[in-house]
Amino acid sequence: MAATDREMNPESEKLQFRLDVPFPSPRDAAIALGSLSPDREPRKGGIDKQLTVTDRTLTVRWSADEARILRVSVDSFLDNLSLVLETMQMFAPPASQ
Q1: What's an example GO BP annotation here (predicted)?
Q2: Whether the model pTM is above 0.85
Q3: How many whole angstroms separate alpha carbon 81 and alpha carbon 76?
Q4: CB 76 within 8 A of CB 27
Q5: CB of 53 closer than 8 Å to CB of 33
Q6: pLDDT (tens digit per residue) in 6-58
């Protein structure tokens, strides 16, 4: 019996989404990464989320089995990101230009 493409390479059928969030400084991007990284996906399968920082850009990559799972994860992340940005604006010293 021949294996399907999904059986041979499960990543081939996954939905992908990438979000790049620019910050005023590398320090601000690192603070956001530190604040958002501890939040693991509650579901034990079907979704993978990776956060990285390059210079002053926070990059988030998702890979999911289903559109619904991807949507819920991205929506939750954006809510958390919004809270982090509001907190940084209120309490963090301004980034040096």
Answers
A1: tRNA threonylcarbamoyladenosine metabolic process
A2: no
A3: 9
A4: no
A5: yes
A6: 444 555 689 999 999 999 999 999 999 999 986 666 666 789 999 999 999 99
